Amino acid sequence: MRDRDYVPPVADSKSRTKLVRLSPLVPPDVHAQAFANAKASGVSMGKYLAELIRRDTLDENGRPVWAVEAFGEPDQGELPMTG
Predict the structure, then answer these.
(1) Is 58 helix (H, G, I), strand (E, B) or coil?
(2) Count of CB atoms situated within 10 Å of the CB of 49
(3) Among candidates 27, 25, 19, which has minimal Cα distance to 44?
(4) Which residues touch 65 (CB under 8 Å, ≥6 apart)?
(5) Distance in Å from the first CA to the final CA of the chain
(6) Rounded to an integer, what is the distance from CA 18 to the centroid of its chain?
(7) Which residue, 83, 63, 65, is CA-closest to 75?
(8) C-alpha–C-alpha distance, residues 45 and 8, integer Å
(9) Comparing C-alpha atoms, which of 36, 37, 39, 34 is closest to residue 22?
(10) How does DSSP assign 40-56, residue by residue?
(11) What is the pTM for the complete model shown?
(12) How do residues 32-68 score in pLDDT, each as one tens digit?
């Protein structure tokens, strides 16, 4: 991933509480699971995702504790293709 600076988003013009958009692209099965989990929790997908992010446990470097298992070590680059 290339290094980028954080640019604060502009509040959505339709939001009375100054909420901002978070619009990641995810696989369809992940979207369906997030929808089902939010519905079972009785909240919107936005509230569900916000709470997941707030509850994320970070290591001493500020990285989610599960990140190495999911993505590998930072800056390891892409693995070579074999076969």
Answers:
(1) strand
(2) 16
(3) 19
(4) 57, 58, 59
(5) 25
(6) 20
(7) 63
(8) 21
(9) 34
(10) HHTS-HHHHHHHHHHT-
(11) 0.75
(12) 999 999 999 999 999 999 999 999 999 999 999 999 9
